[in-house]
Amino acid sequence: MIKLVGILLVALGFGFRVNALVVVLGAGLATGLAAGFSLREVVAMMGRLFVENRGLVLPIVLMLPVVGLLEKHGLQERIATLMRQTAAATAGRILWLYQALRGGLSVLGISLGNHAGMVRPLIAPMAEGAAARRGELTPATRERVRAHGAAAENVGNFFSDDILVAVGALLLVKGFFDAAGVVVTLEKIKLWSVPTALWVLAIGWWRYRALDRWLAKRKDGAK
Asked: How far is CA 122 from CA 27, 105, 117, 119, 136, in A?
């Protein structure tokens, strides 16, 4: 159990709002040391895994300066203003449509974006702008809308990438069951992934409608 200390460190670090990079690196070092590796071996392992997976990591690293430059020139403010002027837009509708689009593209193995490249610069400001149409948002309300935006990214991607064998996640799940000694075919995994993805989409619709109702009550109470 002590080898899983990294999970505890991640939970504590995120709970106390410590820098995410520091938390992840610290958890990785602690897990490696608890598993019996030396500090040199843990650092070497991190470097090797980074190089082997640079095709996944580098696009995110290179995207951050671009997103920062767009935000510096008022990307979030312009999007929020546009959403305030769109009468049919609500925070819940925007987030549900993004979850549906994210899930649909994940089925085909197409990455629309992620938290850093899509949710933070575009989706979250759109939802906040729609929510603030009748008044400014409190910090707690703003954080709640952002949390739903992060959930739309996670849920839309996670539950929809096990339907086509062309997507690597399906093979990863198959490999996990094979290593655990559980006999399961790719067809069965795909079969149960479809209703799961549809059910998650329905749950998302209910959650975002509940978010819109909560925002409406908060505004009515403030008024």
From this structure: 30, 17, 8, 6, 19
